[in-house]
Amino acid sequence: MSLPLWATPQRRAKLVKLFLDSGGFCIYGHKPCPIPEHHYEYYIDGLVREWVSDDKAEREALWKRELQLMHQMPDRKGWKRRFDPVSKETFLTDRPPYYLEAVGVSGLTFTRVAKVRIPSTYMRLFVDVAKAKTQSKNQRRKARRYGITPTETETVYDLCNLAVKDFWTKLS
Fold first, then answer.
1. Of 96, 102, 171, 172, which is least surrounded by CB within 10 A?
2. Using CA atoms, how far apart are residues 112 and 84, in angstroms rounded to an integer?
3. Which domain holds residue 66?
4. pTM here?
5. Is residue 24 part of a domain?
6. What's the structural domain count of the chain?
7. What does the pLDDT profile of the chain (172 residues) look like in tens digits?
8. Has residue 152 been placed in a domain?
């Protein structure tokens, strides 16, 4: 049988000492004690509730401390360190105008849609890419084999580029 979390050896010893000192009756030593809260059984109920709340507060404090320490640690890419100005400029110039997160089918229009994240923002754009002509894997292989240039006028990437440029022009 497992014991509850509040039942540490020191606390159980304290309960036994209280019982032995009071004889199971009034913990303050009154012989005919009219106050029920002084009786051993009622008193230990309040004491146990207090221990449980103390343990809960201690676990919450430990959890908050762990979260604080965890968020202060640099991750494996070392993002805790700051950019030096040269590498920051290099990063910003090499950064793509958008990140393509997913291509799928819209549940509203049942057409192809691309989900695009714009860097340095929390914005996500859903771009309609139904106009982009798709080729099967076999068609792409044949085009490579015979040296045929793709005849697609707009690709998914072109449509996403246009949507992101339109977003920035409307924003400014």
1. 172
2. 41
3. 9-72
4. 0.44
5. yes
6. 2
7. 688 888 888 988 988 888 888 777 887 777 787 777 778 788 888 888 999 999 999 999 999 998 887 777 665 555 556 667 887 888 888 889 999 999 999 989 899 999 999 998 889 999 998 887 777 788 878 888 888 776 655 688 889 999 999 999 998 7
8. yes
